[in-house]
Design a protein that fits this description.
Length: 242
C-alpha cells in the first residue's frame, strides 16, 4: 500500500513507488547539514527527493539569494520517477536535476565537483535483509557499499567541500574509520537520541578534506511527554506544519 503524501510548509512529497517513504532520518539530514558557501549540491540516493527539496528550500531562503543547483541521483526506477514528480511540483523546480543512475556510473570527471554532497545511504549488510525487495533496495548496501560511497564522494567533492551522511552508530563509526583511509576526516558528529536516557540511534556526520577541530554534540528528539524537544523543534520549525 502506497504511503500518503507528506506535506511540508513549502512543498509536498508524493510517495508512490518510492523504496522508502519520508522518515525522520532524511528530515534530520536535510535540516542539519551545513549549507554555508554552497552553490552546487549532490544528493546520493535521493529516494522521494525529500533531502534535496529541504536543501533547496534552505538555499533559496539565504539572505544573499545566491544561485544554486541540486543534482539528485537515484538508481531505483520507481523512486526516481517519484522524486522527478516531486521536483517538478516544487517552487525550485528549475534548480533541481534528477539523474536516474547508479552513483558509481555518475561519478565520472564530466559530472564535475560539488560544494556539498549528502546521502541517507543504505546500511544493512550481510544477512540483515528486508523481505520486501523494494524496501531491501533502500536499506541494504548491495548496490552501494560504504566503501563505494566514500570513493564517489572523494571523486565528486571539491577540495573545500563537505560530505554529510546519517547512519546508525555502528555503521557510522565504521564509515569514519574507512573515510580516514580515503583522506576524508569527520569534523562534526551529532549523536541523535529518541529520548533522554535512551541509547544513541543515529549519527549525523560531516566529512571534509582537512582535519579541522572535531565537534561533537547531541540532539534529543522527544521530551519526557513525547512531544518534540525544544532543540528538535528549532531544527525543523521551517519545514514541519504546525
Amino acid at each position: 500500500m502506497a504511503s500518503p503524501p507528506f506535506h511540508f510548509r513549502k512543498f509536498s512529497i508524493e510517495q508512490g513507488g518510492a523504496a522508502h517513504p519520508v522518515g525522520t532520518d532524511g528530515v534530520l539530514l536535510g535540516a542539519w547539514t551545513d549549507i554555508s558557501a554552497c552553490r552546487k549540491v549532490l544528493d546520493i540516493g535521493t529516494g522521494t527527493g525529500v533531502v534535496a527539496l529541504m536543501l533547496a528550500q534552505r538555499l533559496s531562503d539565504r539572505p544573499e539569494n545566491e544561485a544554486f543547483a541540486i543534482t539528485a541521483v537515484e538508481l531505483h526506477g520507481p523512486s526516481a520517477e517519484c522524486a522527478r514528480g516531486n521536483f517538478a511540483r516544487a517552487p525550485w523546480c528549475d534548480q533541481l536535476i534528477l539523474v536516474e543512475s547508479a552513483i558509481q556510473e555518475f561519478a565520472v570527471p564530466e559530472a564535475g565537483q560539488f560544494d556539498l554532497i549528502v546521502s541517507n545511504p543504505p546500511y544493512f549488510s550481510g544477512q540483515m535483509r528486508a523481505r520486501d525487495p523494494v524496501r531491501r533496495h533502500g536499506r541494504h548496501d548491495d548496490t552501494l557499499t560504504h566503501e563505494a560511497l566514500l570513493d564517489c564522494a572523494v571523486r565528486l567533492m571539491k577540495p573545500d567541500g563537505r560530505f554529510c551522511v546519517i547512519l546508525p552508530p555502528e555503521q557510522g563509526r565504521k564509515l569514519c574509520e574507512a573515510a580516514i583511509q580515503k583522506g576524508l576526516f569527520c569534523n562534526k558528529e551529532t549523536e541523535v537520541y529518541a529520548r533522554h536516557g535512551k541509547p544513541v540511534e543515529r549519527l549525523l556526520l560531516r566529512f571534509e578534506n582537512i582535519p579541522l577541530p572535531f565537534e561533537r554534540n547531541k540532539l534529543v528528539l522527544m521530551d519526557g511527554e513525547g512531544a518534540r524537544s525544544a532543540d528538535f523543534q528549532v531544527l525543523v520549525s521551517n519545514f514541519y506544519l504546525k
